[in-house]
Design brief:
binds zinc ion; Aminopeptidase; alpha+beta
Length: 340
């Protein structure tokens, strides 16, 4: 059986940021192949896995691209200026460790500003930061991290207290893990629905992979699997949210990108109850997922999202609960079997 932490570590080690996802796309295609009839990778690094059935088309989508960084300028001393790939909070990046595809490791540092020595963190912008890879000069930096090269957070997922896993890129590699667990659960089963399990590319830069995949598949019913915020930490008092870690996956009702189909949610609630899966109702005040892309595909699809609660999203210390991942996988499998 797939081991959640081991798989999350493997995917995190392989992954490159949005737009450059070929390594993790190949790995996911390999991992999923024994459980489906067909797998192919398209131009956007979508890994499209087809488990054939005679019934309606059901598309699952978990994005395989993490956020990251790209070098846009190298100065004479070999320090790197960079731009964000996907959404980052610049204040959270100070003093974090990053690694390039070349293996070069660096630290993100803050440029001192003598005019504003006490500037508060909300005033810090990406252009106030730089990456130091220790290069002795521009030439060495150009060799290790040329213009256009991409980097990611350099930390390994670990098990911490409470059956939780902490590390970067739970968003959304942990949902890729959940989809693999669902495929494993469905192994050998003949399902009525025509099932597409898609690991989508370029979500963090505008849900581009899911748009293309959904247009190619034209699903009747779509279920994205992504992470969502929680309201269970001291930091969340200002924006309360009725989602907590360890209380099961959520069924999304609305976020900043889409209103989920009430019919799709009715189906999910029914299958969750039947399978004895505890879930939480989710309304997120911002954000968006691949569910929005599937909703608008073809002539429109009944689309929603199953979320895995996650603290500190888009940081190197994202925290998810292992049981929530297992239960999310069970919910995806139960949805795959559902009568539509
Ligand atoms: Zn995500």
């Amino acid at each position: 059986m797939f081991d959640i932490l081991e798989l999350q570590r493997k995917l995190t080690a392989a992954a490159l940021p949005s737009g450059f996802e070929t390594p993790q796309a190949k790995l996911l295609a390999e991992l999923a192949a024994p459980y489906v009839d067909e797998v192919h990778i398209d131009a956007l690094n979508n890994v499209i896995c087809h488990k054939k059935g005679k019934g309606k088309k059901l598309m699952f989508a978990a994005h395989l691209d993490p956020i990251g960084f790209m070098v846009n300028y190298i100065d004479e001393k070999g320090y790197l200026s960079f731009t964000a790939i996907g959404g980052h909070n610049p204040a959270c990046l100070i003093n974090t460790r990053v690694v390039f595809a070349s293996g070069a490791v660096g630290g993100i540092a803050l440029k001192p500003d003598p005019d504003h020595p006490n500037r508060n963190s909300s005033a810090i912008r990406m252009t106030d930061l730089y990456i130091d890879i220790g290069a002795k000069d521009k030439k060495e930096a150009e060799r290790l991290a040329p213009i256009g090269s991409v980097a990611k957070f350099c930390t390994v997922p670990q098990e911490i207290g409470g059956g939780n896993i902490m590390g970067p890129y739970a968003d959304d590699l942990i949902a890729c893990v959940a989809q693999l667990l669902a495929l494993e659960e469905l192994k050998g089963e003949k399902c009525e629905n025509d099932l597409y399990f898609v690991f989508t590319g370029q979500e963090e830069t505008g849900c581009k992979g899911a748009k293309v995949a959904a247009e190619a598949i034209r699903p009747y019913f779509g279920v994205a699997c992504d992470v969502t915020a929680t309201g269970d930490t001291p930091a969340d008092k200002k924006v309360p949210m009725a989602v907590a870690l360890g209380k099961g996956p959520t069924i999304k009702i609305k976020d900043g990108g889409a209103i989920s189909s009430p019919y799709a949610n009715e189906v999910l609630r029914k299958v969750a109850k039947k399978a004895g899966i505890k879930y939480q109702d989710e309304v997120l005040l911002y954000g968006g997922t691949d569910a929005g892309a599937m909703l608008l595909s073809g002539v429109g699809a009944y689309s929603t999202c199953v979320s895995i609660p996650c603290r500190n999203i888009h940081s190197p210390v994202e925290i998810v609960n292992k049981n929530d991942v297992l239960e999310a996988a069970r919910l995806l499998a139960a949805a795959a079997r559902s009568a539509l």
